[in-house]
Amino acid sequence: MAMIQPVLESLRFSNFIFGLVTGDLNNKDAMQRSRGEEGASISWTIGHLLHYRCQVLNLLGKKKESEFKAKFSDMGATNGDDYPDILDFDLKWQELHAEIEEHLPKVSDAQLTEQIENEESPHNEKAVLDVLVFLMWHESYHLGVLGAIRKQLGLTATADLAMSVSK
Hints:
The protein is mainly alpha-helical. 61% of the residues lie in helices and 0% in strands. It has a single domain, classed as Up-down Bundle (Four Helix Bundle (Hemerythrin (Met), subunit A)), CATH 1.20.120. Helix 1 packs antiparallel against helix 5, helix 1 packs parallel to helix 7 and helix 3 runs antiparallel to helix 7.
């Protein structure tokens, strides 16, 4: 099995969870900030995840300009007045996921073991695969945040959504 396969499976599972946690959202709920209006909203978190999905593609040799960097990586969460609608975010997610599905199976083991420059590494990782491992953890962490915000809003928990699909 190619070394990229577990990364691709992780991204596929994240895509599945993303569909669950956003499938019943309206824009008002998606924009609601957490932690007493000081924390991130679901919308900000999705924009943040979209930026890092672009980073995955870039890291693996597919040039992908991130339209999400300025608002969702370089800056913290705001009231969201200038954020895209949740339906637009969903479309962007699906487009990026399709690019991931197309590009990642072509990634060689040699690409994954390439050494990288420190400025390309979030935490001083040494190889492309090491950065990908971090980015998979990062994505999972933020998907968990989406679930926590859902609970705060009184929406169905992610685990309950997943269980209802598996029945």
